[in-house]
Design a protein that fits this description.
This is Dehydrogenase/reductase 12-like a. It comes from Oryzias sinensis. The protein is of the alpha/beta class. The chain has one domain: Rossmann fold. The protein has eleven helices and eight strands. It has helices at about 10-25, 35-45, 75-85, 100-115, 130-140, 170-190, 225-245, 260-265, 270-275, 280-295, 325-340; strands at about 65-70, 90-95, 120, 145-150, 195-200, 250-255, 305, 310. An eight-stranded mixed sheet has the order 3-2-1-4-5-6-7-8, with helices on both faces. A hairpin with a 2-residue loop joins strand 7 (about 305) and strand 8 (about 310). Helix 6 (about 170-190) packs parallel to helix 7. About 45% of the residues are buried. The chain binds nicotinamide-adenine-dinucleotide. Nicotinamide-adenine-dinucleotide binds next to helix 3 and helix 8.
Length: about 350
């Protein structure tokens, strides 16, 4: 996979920046970090990626004999990552919600990569008990898992709950990742050079960790902000996992703004106005693949946040989004309690 190239024309970027800045001015009544247009400004500033400093040979490795589980691997960034890893010879476990879409994506990957070691597993990550059941069964069936890529993500337009009474996007974006990772830790630890990568979003920059309303029961439900909160929770979860599971290399990354069905469906205005500047799924998957397969990625400490193959801060300058160690530990305890509640005996 090539590094990320400059996308969109300078003119388009200038038009987009002008629109963004004028919107920014109109929103001055809001605290700046709560304002979604801050994210647009930040998105614009990060569209042109420093691909020139990417070292192509970082990805010049064979991963034959190593296995990779990728959630949401039938579409967008997940499919692009699955394709790139299959081309490098890795065994790919695609964890997908929809069987037909998953099989179709698998056929594309096998055809284009020539690699038949691509397996489909059907799982709806919003079904909390089933996430446990799936991970436990996987552990029994397979002897190794080298890399887990928590890529699937969900934004809801209105609040909905799953069979366990949990807010659905929380179940997918946070508890699903927690359970899948926790349950697979023993298998990962048995495997050489284990890694866990989670795909967060720059949207998390506008959110401070909030642990008092994990189910989004109180206040008006704003799906985009709920999603951004979950993405902040993924960053904190990664930092905490890195502290407790020191044999595994954890990382969390922002893929840039990528033209995928998720963006088109969940943020149609953003998609319309930024379409010409968005990255392709391959470009969005570049850092996922780099974190999953390159040797240089694991020379960085575990638990870090990445953008364009580089460790970056998890907070914008002067932001009030920092949480205390106590809040972070409490958050992990709440996840543990919730996860245990639905664990099969
Ligand atoms: N596209 C972007 O600009 C962008 C920016 C930041 C972060 N992200 C993140 O990238 C990741 C991949 O998204 P994408 O942009 O490729 O979109 P996408 O719609 O192409 O992929 C999302 C995948 O998640 C799967 N998924 C959603 N809910 C699921 C569930 N309940 N159970 C199982 N699978 C489920 C979907 O089926 C799909 O395969 C997400 O975590 C998203 O939050 C994307």
């Amino acid at each position: 996979m090539k590094g990320i190239e400059l996308v969109g024309s300078a003119q388009a970027h200038t038009r987009s920046l002008t629109r963004t800045l004028s919107h920014q001015r109109r929103c001055q009544a809001h605290p700046i970090l709560l304002c979604p247009c801050t994210v647009r400004l930040w998105a614009w500033l990060t569209l042109n990626s420093p691909s020139k400093r990417f070292v192509e040979k970082d990805l010049d490795v064979s991963v034959a004999g190593r296995s990779f589980m990728i959630t949401g691997a039938n579409s967008g960034i997940g499919k692009a990552a699955a394709m790139a890893i299959a081309k490098k010879g890795g065994t790919v476990h695609m964890v997908c919600r929809n069987k037909d879409k998953a099989e179709e994506a698998r056929a594309d990957i096998v055809k284009e990569s020539g690699n038949k070691e691509v397996y489909v597993h059907i799982l709806d990550l919003s079904e909390t008990r089933k996430v446990w059941e799936f991970a436990e069964a996987f552990k029994k069936k397979y002897k190794a898992l080298n890399v887990l890529i928590n890529n699937a993500g969900s934004i809801m337009s209105q609040r909905d709950v799953n069979a366990e009474g949990l807010e659905k996007s929380f179940a997918v974006n946070v508890l699903g990742i927690y359970i899948l990772t926790k349950s697979l830790v023993p298998l990962l630890e048995k495997s050489p050079d284990p890694r866990v990568i989670s795909v967060t979003s720059g949207g998390m920059f506008v959110q401070k960790l909030r642990i008092g309303n994990l189910q989004s029961e109180r206040g008006r439900y704003d799906g985009t902000m709920v999603y951004a909160q979950h993405k902040r929770q993924q960053v904190v979860m990664t930092e905490q996992f890195a502290k407790t599971h020191t044999n595994i290399h954890f990382s969390v990354m922002h893929p840039g703004w990528v033209d995928t069905p998720a963006v088109a469906n969940a943020m149609p205005d953003f998609h319309r106005s930024m379409k010409e500047s968005l990255r392709s799924p391959d470009q969005g998957a570049d850092t996922v693949v780099w974190l999953a397969i390159s040797e240089v990625a694991i020379t960085n400490p575990s638990g870090r946040f990445y953008q364009d193959r580089r460790v970056v801060s998890t907070h914008l300058p002067l932001a009030w989004t920092h949480s205390s160690p106590l809040e972070e530990q409490k958050f992990m305890s709440l996840l543990e309690e919730l996860a245990k509640k639905f664990q099969p005996h």
